[in-house]
Amino acid sequence: QVQLVESGGGSVQAGGSLRLSCATSGRTFSSYPMGWFRQAPGKEREFVAAMSWNGRSTYYAGSVKGRFTISRDNAKNTVALQMNSLKPEDTAVYYCAAARRITITTAADSYDYWGQGTQVTVSS
Predict the structure, then answer these.
(1) In this structure, what is the dihedral angle of CA atoms 61, 19, 80, 27, given to the nearest 10 degrees?
(2) Model pLDDT for residues 66-102, shown as the tens digit of each residue
């Protein structure tokens, strides 16, 4: 079993930055692709970013590309999402997730383990 715990959410003004962290425990985290998703009120959960198990491949949603950066530290069993130039439309609950598969994926239903989420609020 993999357990994921997000932290680092909060409130920030537009143009500001936040860094989300996801601490993992349980099974071998370092062998799983990891992803970040978000869900705004009244909207479906959407993909934000993903990274392969070895960090060599990354995917980003078009809406965050160039502003957000996903990273991981397999030695510390953590994954992070650096969010810069935040916009009000980035307001959502952000979730980290782990997928029991070899290849990287952007599909939420391909992820097997989820954190509880952390709120990010961006004011204009």
Answers:
(1) -120
(2) 999 999 999 999 999 999 999 999 999 999 999 998 8
